[in-house]
Inverse folding.
């Protein structure tokens, strides 16, 4: 096909996007009207998969339409899937910061993840905008108690602190808030009492363990002294044996350099040397018996030390578990929809219908997707395939903006003689 590079240049430069001058085609439907059928599906469909597909189609038309995100968030809350409602809620906090339910969902999800600082901030904004939502009041009561009581002195944004200061009086009048607040304060009180008891037990266990460690060190020192004495007496036996051989043998001694030295016989009593050797040997045997006895005692001491160390480690582990006990006292509730709180499901619910439920068609979106595919073929110099798709777009969606662009691009792709 001729002039292929020219067509690609036109596409990349955006010329193909220009509508022909004086076009009489009907204007495209407004995005708000195109979104309406998908909103109906989101509100009414029972299968969460269908709801998710409708949401994706609607946001493809207008991702900044607050109605889409709000309807989808509410529907997922009613279906017991606040984890899926989190994304549209987060989007809503940016598009419409006054949407209290969105802040409530964000705070709930942060709380479930034990990200209490983030949960505190989002929940304060939520309760400021939805002061009568029981779920948000409950979550707020827990988080304010955490902020007031936690010994780690959590840091939260100043803006959230100022908002809380302005609401404390009103919040205190809510029985839901007050009950949740008291439950967490009581949990921290119990934790402090348990921690004090654990500290006493830990101190006592450390004293006992240190005493056994000192005893083990004494056993080790005793063994070292006994072995040193055995070595000394063995060397003495060797010296006495050499003296016995040298002085009552041939009188020659070969030193370490290999030189023979002569020692004249000395008038020592041979029986005295033999007696001294036997005495030392008996002393060595007695010392070895003592070593075995001390080692038996040492094994008992090491066993006791291991038991003390295990007890000490268990108490230290209890400290960590004690901190986790307070976190288990938190109970997080998702925001209510029309006064109804739906608890979060443990998993995704079973499908209530076929996943391939037909969704409303949106010609603008369909045409735009096909047009993008045709442009992709043009960029890769596959003009024949692009022409085939463009003809389809013109035939089926000629009145749409994408259809008008397809018509222009199709004209640019005609062979040049």
């Amino acid at each position: 096909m001729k002039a292929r590079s020219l067509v690609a240049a036109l596409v990349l430069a955006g010329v193909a996007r220009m509508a022909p001058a004086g076009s009489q085609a009907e204007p495209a439907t407004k995005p708000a009207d195109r979104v309406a059928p998908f909103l109906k599906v989101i509100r009414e469909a029972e299968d969460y998969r269908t709801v998710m597909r409708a949401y994706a189609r609607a946001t493809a038309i207008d991702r900044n339409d607050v109605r889409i995100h709000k309807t989808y968030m509410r529907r997922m809350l009613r279906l017991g899937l606040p984890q899926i409602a989190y994304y549209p809620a987060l989007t809503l906090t940016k598009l419409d910061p006054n949407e209290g339910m969105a802040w409530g969902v964000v705070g709930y999800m942060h709380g479930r993840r034990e990200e209490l600082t983030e949960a505190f901030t989002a929940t304060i904004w939520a309760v400021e905008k939805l002061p009568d939502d029981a779920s948000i009041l409950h979550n707020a009561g827990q988080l304010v108690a955490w902020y007031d009581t936690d010994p780690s002195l959590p840091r939260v944004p100043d803006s959230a602190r100022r908002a809380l200061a302005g609401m404390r009086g009103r919040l205190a009048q809510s029985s839901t808030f007050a009950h949740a607040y008291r439950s967490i304060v009581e949990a921290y009180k119990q934790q402090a009492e348990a921690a004090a008891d654990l500290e006493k037990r830990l101190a006592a266990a450390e004293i006992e363990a240190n005493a056994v460690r000192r005893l083990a060190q004494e056993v080790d020192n005793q063994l070292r002294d006994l072995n040193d004495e055995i070595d000394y007496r063995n060397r003495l036996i060797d010296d006495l044996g050499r003296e016995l051989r040298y002085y009552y043998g041939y009188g020659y001694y070969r030193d370490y350099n290999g030189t023979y030295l002569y020692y004249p016989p000395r008038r020592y009593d041979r029986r005295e040397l033999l007696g001294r050797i036997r005495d030392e040997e008996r002393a060595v045997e007695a010392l070895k018996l003592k070593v075995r006895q001390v080692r038996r005692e040492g094994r008992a001491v090491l066993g006791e030390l291991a038991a003390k160390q295990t007890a000490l480690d268990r108490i230290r582990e209890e400290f960590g578990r004690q901190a986790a006990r307070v976190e288990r006292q938190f109970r997080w509730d998702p925001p209510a929809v029309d006064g109804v709180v739906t608890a979060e499901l443990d998993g995704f619910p079973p499908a209530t219908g076929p996943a391939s439920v037909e969704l409303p068609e949106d010609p603008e979106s369909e045409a735009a997707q096909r047009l993008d595919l045709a442009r992709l073929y043009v960029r890769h110099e596959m003009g024949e395939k692009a022409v085939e798709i463009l003809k389809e777009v013109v035939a089926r969606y000629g009145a749409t903006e994408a259809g008008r662009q397809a018509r222009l691009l199709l004209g640019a792709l005609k062979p040049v003689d």
Observations:
- The chain is about 70% helix and 0% strand.
